[in-house]
Write a structure and sequence with these properties.
1 helix, 52 residues
Length: 52
Amino acid sequence: MILDLHFKYLNYSPQVHDEITNKITKDRSRDIAHYNKLGSTCSGTIKRVKEQ
């Protein structure tokens, strides 16, 4: 059973490296947008409960 695996260095071509970096950036941006939406939904709910 493998519990953990680390790569210290992978030698990618510049084009592949850029593609990977762009893909990671898009994934992180999507995650951030999701959490921002969730946060604003929770904030709205809290404000409505507070006003009651």
